[in-house]
Amino acid sequence: MAIRTDRPTTGRFTAGRLRTDLRTIRHMAFPRVTGSTPAERMESYYRSAATDYDAFRERLLHGRRDLMRLLPARPGSHLVDMGAGTGSNIAHLDDRRRAEYRRITLVDVSASMLAVARHRVARSGWHNVETVHASATDYRPEDGPADVVMFSYALTMMPDWFAAVDHARAILRPGGTLAVCDFYVSRKHPGRGARHAAWRRHLWPAWFGHNDVFLSPDHLPYLRARFTAVHEEERLAPVPYLPARVPYYLFVGTRD
Fold first, then answer.
1. CA proximity to 39, closest of 99, 96, 101, 111
2. How far apart are CA 247 and CA 4, in angstroms?
C-alpha cells in the first residue's frame, strides 16, 4: 500500500511565531503533569499551554481539513467532536456545511481548553456550536443518538481509547458515522495496510509518550472491527523542527 507523504505546512515565519513555538516546545520537553486521574493530568498539562496550542498544532496535526471534508453534513444532524480541545477542528469546516448541522457539540475534559473553545465559538458566531465539559466515555446526547462522532488527534491521548471508541458506537444512531484522524504506528506484521520500519515503530511511541500521547498499532484494526470502513488513508507527515516524518491515518466508518 502506498503511503502519502505530506509536505510541510507553509506560512510566514515571524519572530512572534518563533517565540510561541519555543514556549510550546519547552512545555513539551519539560511537561508538568500532576493529578491522579486522566482528566486531572490532562488539565494540568494544558492549563499553561492552551493559548499557544493552536499555532504549533496547525503544523503538527495534519489531515484535519481532509477529515472535515469527509464528514457527512445532512441538514438537521448532530455532530459530536470528542476531545475537541480548543474547537479548532470545527474551524476547518466550511461555513455552509457547518451551518447545515442542527447541533455541534465540542466535548473535552480540560476546562482550560474548553475556555478557549468557547471564546472561539463566540468570536466566530457559531450559533449551533456548544461546549460540554465531559469525558469521551461519559458524554451522552440529551436528545437521542448522534449522527456523527469524530476524534481528531484525541484517541492517542485517552488511556482507555478502546472504551472511547465503544462509547462512540453506543451513542451513534444505526448508520451513523465515526471519523478519526490520529497518529499511529503499524503492527510489526499488519494484516493489511502500511508496514512501518522498526525505527518508526519504536521512535514515535517513545517520543510522543513523553507527553502522554500514546501511539498504538491497534487503532486501525480495532476501528475496522467495530465499524464498516468507507474511507481509509495512511500517511506520513512532517514534524516541526525535526527531519523525520510521523505516521498518521484517516478513518471514516459507519455503524451497522
1. 111
2. 10
Pair 24, 112: CB distance under 8 Å: no
pLDDT at residue 181 in the model: 98
Q: Please give the Cα distance from 181 to 78 (Å, whole number).
A: 19
How is residue 86 written as a grid cell? 480548543
Question: The domain that contains 234 carries what CATH number?
Answer: 3.40.50.150
Distance from C-alpha of 3 to C-alpha of 189, rounded to nearest angstrom: 16
Q: State the residue range of the domain holding 147.
A: 4-13+62-254
Q: Is 111 helix (H, G, I), strand (E, B) or coil?
A: helix
C-alpha cell at 4: 502519502
Number of C-beta neighbours around residue 38 at 10 A: 16
| DSSP designation for 35 | -
How many domains does the structure of the chain reveal?
A: 1
Provide the residue count of the chain.
256
Kindly report, residue by residue over 5-49, the tens digit of the pLDDT: 776 655 555 665 556 655 555 555 556 666 666 666 655 555 555
